[in-house]
Each structure stands twice: as C-alpha cells, then as structure tokens.
Amino acid sequence: MTRSRSESGEQALPESSGGAVPRRLVVVGQGYVGLPLAVRAVEAGYHVIGYDTDKNRIDLLRRGGSFIDDVSGETVASMLATGRYEPTDDAALMAGFDVVVVSVPTPLRDGAPDLSYIEAAAVEIGPHLSPGCCVVLESTTYPGTTEDVFIPILESSGPLRAGRDFRVGYSPERIDPSNRRWGLRNTPKVVSGLDAGSLDAVSAFYRDIVDELVPVATIREAELTKLFENTFRHVNIALVNELAMYCHGLGIDVWSVVDAAASKPFGFMKFTPGPGVGGHCLPIDPSYLQWQVQRSVGRTFRFIDIANDINEHMPDYVVDRVTAHLNERSRSIRDSAILLVGLSYKSNSGDARQSPALDVARRLADRGARLSAADPLIDPMYVPSFIELVEMTEERVDRSDLVLVLTDHDDLDWDLLESRASRVLDTRNRLADPAVDRL
Asked: How would CATH label the architecture of 218-312?
C-alpha cells in the first residue's frame, strides 16, 4: 500500500495554488459520488470542472447550493469563491483536462446492467482526449466494462489509443453518505490501470486526494472488488434479518444475541437487522455480480439469490409485525393512523434512494392505513402523496394508533417516543423501554 503526501485531517479550501497553474480535473457526474470528489480535489489545489447533464443540478451548484447531506451549501459557495470550481452542463468545457473521473449512475434495467450513462460519458470525453491525459472510471459496474465498453468508445473518437497515448484506470467509489468516521479522504482507495503507466498515473492523481491507496493488478480485479464488498454486506444483512424473524418466533431478543456475539474479538463482524436494505449500492450491486456470473459461467450465485429473497421481503415482514401489533389492541391496519419515523434509507441522511422505509409505507398504504411521517432530513419531493410529512409532536404521537420507527435519525425526539412506548414498533433498536415492540 502507498501513502499520500498528506496524513492530516480535512483542510480549508485554499484560495490559490501559490502561483502555479493548477492541474485541470473534470468530474463527470455531480451527485453523491462526484460532488464530494470535486470538493476534495479543490481542497487539494485542482481546477475542477464539475460536469453533469442535469441542468437543474448545475444551476443549484452555480448558486452555491447543494442537494446532498455530505456537502453543505457553504462548502459549495467556498469552492466557487476559489475560482477553481466550475459546475457546467456544457461538455465543451472539458477541453484541456489532465485527469477526468467518471462517476455516473449504473442502474439495473429489467435485471441487467444499464451502461448508457457510462457510454454517454465516454462519448462526451472522447473528443477532448490529449496525449498524456488520464481517464478514470469510478462508477460501479461488472468486470470487463472498462476494457470492453468504456475504452473502445473513448478510442473511437480519434487516433489516440489507451495505454499508448493516454492513461486509463478504474477505481471503485466507496462513498458512504453521512458516515461521520469514514469519508472520501480517509477511506482506503482501490486503484488499477490498463498497464503499468496507467496505474502510475491513476495512483499519482489519487495520492493528492486520499490518504491511502490499495493498488490491484488488473482493472477487472478492481471492478469485482466493489461488487464483492457490497455483496458481502448484503449477504450478512440477510443472515441477521432472517435471524431476527427466527428469534421473534422463539421469543428471543435478537438484539441481545447480536450484541453478545459481537463481544467475540475475532472471527465475527457485527451486522444488525432492519426493515430492508437501501441506498445506491446494496440493492443493486449484488445483482450486477449475479448477472455477470450467469452470463460468464452459466450458473447462479446462490448466496445472492437467498440474500435478495430475504432482504426484499423484509418490508413484508415489517407489515406483518404491524398487523400483529395492531391486532393485539383490537385494531386493523385499514383506517389506522400510523406515524412513520424516518423515511430515508439510513440514519442521519436524507437519501431516499431504494429506501426500505418507503417500501414499507407503500405496503401499509395498499392495506388502507392512514400514514404520516416525521423525517427532518428527507426532501419533501421524495415523499409520496399518500404520506403526510409532519413534525413529531406529543399530539401527533398520541393521535397515532402506532408509531413505526424505520430510520433512526439522531435529530428526533426519542424521549417523547420512550414516554409513549406501548404504541411503538421499533425496527432499529433505538428505544430501550421494555414496553417497546422491537423487530
């Protein structure tokens, strides 16, 4: 492993590069991955072109606004003030780059990887390639994408060839929104290159950005690394989710079991149950690996099939528990007033992508429940029309037949819920009162 030149904590955005001409970086995609990278690169002294095809997003960034939790509007304004951050939807401004990093979405379409955003990015980048420049793909994808799809499109734009004339590598993103311990800078960065020169160029760039590099021998190894990381999490979350269902049937406290097992200092990693999985990685990445295995070797990855089945049905299990809780109080779901606590996919984040809380809400609404929700972080535009977004007040709690904790943001009145424990179903083990019904 190699170390970057900086081992200190986050630094303030520098106002100038000390008279030297800063290296020109293009970050294609200004979302949850690309925008934090742009911030860090400006901190490191780069001149950053933040390119995105979403004009509304670019207009917001130009005004000094932000739409993600990990980058504040104040940070964007500070970047703009340096004169070294240019958000744009004009691909012509890519011209003259030294490094370009592609961090665009790679969704699933009908169970197959959709590489259209990667392909479009390569088309936009191609005309601006120059001898000695470096191109890095960060988007999550299956092994072979960089060499079989991305590079051929880059090369189709002109006579320059990857490895010979310009450098190409793959470095999987490891962004974990709202993680207060591990951010872009201090999370080890896997890097790879098409050849030795490409690996050197990719490594040289990321040494300016992160504290620790993890080089791997081939691009395909780096692509598979990301899929394996998240499949590992997905499978282990499924294991503990199934354990939770098993424990409830036996009258055993699953949370106590998990905590006790976590006391073992070797051979165990703690995962906790919940209402399902969400975010930009876990519900999708294992399916990329499954698709690749089926296509390449003609078989299925059995662990992924099992994990998908368990995690995808956790919202159904939560609804079953809601039904049982209400039945014990002679209530049915239909026409019951249910207050949902948290709608985003993880605590202390407003990110609603693939949120299991929204899956639970849809199932409850389909059964006739009257739904309100308290979530101080989620953007109201992501809240379905069948949910009333409210503040969590004493009156609101008392008017609810059930309070269902789905996402445990710190910025909520947990003492209030403790005081009304008998009407609470907690899927996150946030409340300690014995009267709380827990997953």
From this structure: 3-Layer(aba) Sandwich (3.40)
